[in-house]
Amino acid sequence: MIVVGAPGAGKGTLAKRLAGERGLPHIATGDILREAIRQGTPVGLQARRFVESGGLVPDEVVIGLIEERFSRPDTVRGWILDGFPRTVPQAEALDRLLARLNQPVDAVLLLECPEEALLERITGRRSCPACGTPYHVKNQKPRREGVCDRDGTPLVQREDDTEAKVRLRLEKYRRETAAVIPFYERKGLVRRVDAAGAPDAVYRAAAAVLPPP
Description:
The chain is of the alpha/beta class and 213 residues long. It has one domain: P-loop containing nucleotide triphosphate hydrolases (Rossmann fold). Helix content is 46%, strand content 12%. The chain is built from nine helices and seven strands; from the N terminus they run βαβαααβαβαββααβα. It is globular and about 55 Å long. The relative contact order is 0.17.
């Protein structure tokens, strides 16, 4: 299963919950990249060179990371992929890999949410720089405005969560990642999920379009 959607749509939250409920590994490309670099795997060493130089990790290296991860026995029963593919060439490369591994995609969950709601979600996010506790100015307020409930540290906004940068990320999604959707629609794999509600409602909507675990 692949989970796709715009920034702020809740891909990671849903993917983790589905993975837990179904006993499947949640495979997030950012996580496996960091893990491979930390462990010094062959592909991780390749990726490290690009990360340390500030460059983008090429598609073939990311595909290599995914293949390394899929070599583990916990993927035999299935998997939930989060954060990849982001472009049509990546989707095509992933198809070739999965055909070689005999692990075809069964469903692509597309999380749909209005852009203004995405903006509100992302620009309202805050976190404690000391302990990492997440907050939201509207949906998850601290007891005292602007400070962490746990340790009183002033909350911060991530640099790329400002409105201008979020709009750029959404534009990049429309320009690149959204093209992946027709690619999978032609295969009859896309399951559309209303992601505008609270996490529990999104989970119920996703469960309704998937076969039971």
